[in-house]
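Dear colleague,

Thank you for sharing your sequence with our group. We've completed the structure prediction you requested, and as agreed, I am returning the results in plain text so they can be pasted directly into your records. Please verify that the sequence below matches your submission; if there's any discrepancy, let me know and we will rerun it promptly.
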Amino acid sequence: MSNSAIIYIMTLIQTELKNALDAMGERNRFTDAQLAKKLREVAKIEGKNKAIISLADLTAAVESLAEEGKIFSVTVTSSNDLVIERTESLKEIALENKQRRQRHEKSCTIFTNSDLNKAGGKKGDGKHKKKASPKRTERESLDVNGEWE
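Please find the predicted structure tokens below.
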């Protein structure tokens, strides 16, 4: 198998990230927060407004788009944010920056495949709803001063 014939098996989140990158239009430079907002819009994800995108998932989506001729470069800033920009060639992220971002991801909420499953209606179809608790009844008070035998 030659290097040019590498086939990427993408997960659901990586595929949606690829679609979100396409949906960003002609913007040349944007952050991962802007991409996450577009991802929520494209994938119809409700909630998780503070969730971030995993560097590994974004890298897989960018490499897949590079095969189609749409080349994006990912940079990690000093505040562990990701800056995505259109470039003419792929740039490798420095190992130290990659490790720093991965440590940062451990303390954050990240988009996962299960978020997309919930958004798509594959899970949580409403079959297992909580039963309503019974109405509260009047309680009889105890007669403490009653007759003792």
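Summary note from our side: The first strand starts at residue 29 and ends at 31.

Kind regards,
the structure core
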